[in-house]
Specification:
It contains 16 helices and 19 strands. By secondary structure, the chain is α/β, with parallel strands linked by helices. Strands 2-10-19-18-17-16-15-14-11-12-13 form an 11-stranded mixed β-sheet, sandwiched between helices. Strands 1-9-8-7-6-3-4-5 form an 8-stranded mixed β-sheet, with helices on both faces.
């Protein structure tokens, strides 16, 4: 069993792949997989709550409930007081779950129609990965009681109500910990999943996932790099930040400062406002230029930061000539509303020119001509569709940022927190991304690494110190 930390690339598997793993495990002696799952759950419960006495084990009608029965059996044998509520019927229970039910009864586990009046720790073994129906009745009542209780909850496999493939949920259990069994599921790390799952643990139950391609990869930290002594500013590339329509100059300055502090050799701030300042007094090593005077074919460009409607006029040249390109904010909105700009973006894809889109869910919905709810309902599919439609890397912001490449590769970023939910942090990300593209990283590498470090900076931000985009840009 392992705690899932953002220290390595973790493979994430779909429900379909997990079903194939279950079929592979059918060669084991009967009931082995459920017994292993229950023992792993009981061990983790004991580690997380060693002093808990009364444990509510909320079991559903399927095999997830069977895992709960097995956990209850061990906890009873170890001197705990598990109280099992079961929402199933013995005649309709799956064979493995029925066998575990009988084992738990034989061990003297207490079964009750109602949860205990007070409990020290709880196990959510209600639904697992197999349920697609909206919770109702007693099932919904038990989910709500788990969420309302003062004690912590350990979800067995996934929090009940959470879609394992997508991280979407209308109603789900809010767990402090989740033990993912057989394989890690993408939905634990994006959308609602990050809040619902809490700390994620993993046990493969002795069944290797060899030969099963992952649905996505949980991003790893970028390798540490050291600059060669025999280098100069030209070795690290030029970045141009184009945006800053009237009243929005700050967005360009945030992105440009971020690119400079993230290692770009030279950074040019190119305002779309003719009245913009000719100097950034707080960062005088930034160079201010007219956007149409720059040699974009030799640069990594971040376009759209605070661009307003003015960015539309710049986009045809930017899309056609920029060596590497990050499209953010108003640039994305302009492209979503203009089929000719979409055609130019698709032409970049056919040329395999390095390009990264960085939409938040509403901007993604505009690009896909759909609704924000549809994007959030399946963030992996939305990012995948953006990447394939426009032939570029799509970085879909939000909890559990999803990065998709045109070839189908999918990464989910494991870092970051709600401190980033303020104005300007997206401009900082665009600047960091442009700097990594300028240094020669591929679009997928740059997007994955910039998102990881962006979130990590927020995770490491000192307690009690407000996080602002301006401070993040130079961190």
């Amino acid at each position: 069993m392992q705690r899932v930390l953002p220290d390595r690339p973790w493979p994430l598997h779909s429900i379909a792949a997990i079903r194939r793993l279950e079929q592979r495990a059918a060669a084991l002696p009967p009931h082995t997989l459920m017994q292993r799952a229950g023992l792993a759950t009981a061990r983790l419960t004991l580690a997380l709550a060693p002093h808990a006495r009364t444990l509510w084990i909320a079991c559903g009608p399927g095999n997830n409930g069977g895992d709960g029965f097995e956990a209850a059996l061990h906890l009873k044998q170890w001197g705990k007081e598990p109280v099992v509520t079961w929402l199933g019927e013995e005649a309709k229970a799956p064979e493995d779950a029925r066998a575990s039910l009988q084992r738990a009864r034989a061990a003297g586990v207490r079964f009750s129609p109602e949860p205990p009046p007070d409990w020290d720790f709880a196990l959510d073994a209600l639904l697992g990965i197999g349920s697609t129906r909206a919770p109702a009745g007693t099932l919904l009542d038990h989910m709500q009681r788990l969420n309302a209780g003062r004690a912590r909850v350990l979800a067995v496999d996934v929090p009940s109500g959470l879609a394992a493939d997508t991280g979407h949920a209308e109603t789900c259990v809010q767990a402090a910990h989740t033990l993912s069994l057989l394989a890690l599921k993408p939905g634990l790390f994006t959308g609602v999943g990050r809040d619902a799952a809490g700390a994620v643990w993993f046990d493969d139950l002795g069944v290797a996932a060899d030969g099963e391609p992952p649905a996505a990869i949980l991003s790893a930290p970028p390798a540490a790099s050291q600059r060669a002594h025999a280098s100069h500013k030209g070795s690290y590339g030029d970045v141009a930040v184009i945006g800053g329509a009237p009243g929005m100059a700050g967005a360009v300055l945030l992105a440009a400062r971020a690119a400079l502090h993230h290692g770009a050799g030279r950074v040019f701030a190119a305002f779309l406002d003719a009245q913009a300042p000719a100097l950034d007094a707080g960062q005088p090593d930034l160079m201010v230029r007219a956007w149409d005077s720059l040699d974009l074919a030799a640069m990594s460009v971040a376009c759209g930061c605070g661009g307003g409607d003015a960015v539309r006029a710049a986009l045809p040249r930017v899309l056609s000539t920029a060596r590497a390109l990050v499209l953010d904010a108003d640039a994305l909105n302009a492209i979503a509303a203009d089929s000719q700009l979409q055609a130019l973006l698709q032409a970049r894809g056919r040329r395999q020119a390095a390009t990264v889109l960085t939409p938040h869910p509403l901007e993604a919905a505009r690009l896909l001509a759909t609704k924000t709810g549809d994007v959030q309902g399946d963030r992996l599919q939305a990012a995948r569709e953006l990447a394939q439609r426009f032939g570029c890397v799509a970085l879909l912001k939000g909890s559990g940022t999803v990065i998709a490449a045109p070839d189908g590769a999918l990464h989910i970023n494991p870092t970051g927190n709600a401190r980033l939910a303020i104005a300007g942090t997206g401009d900082v990300l665009a600047g960091w991304l442009a700097a990594r593209l300028a240094a020669g990283e591929s679009a997928l590498e740059a997007a994955s690494h910039a998102a990881y470090l962006h979130g990590l900076a927020a995770d490491r931000w000192p307690e009690g110190v407000p996080l602002t985009a301006a401070a993040l840009a130079v961190s």
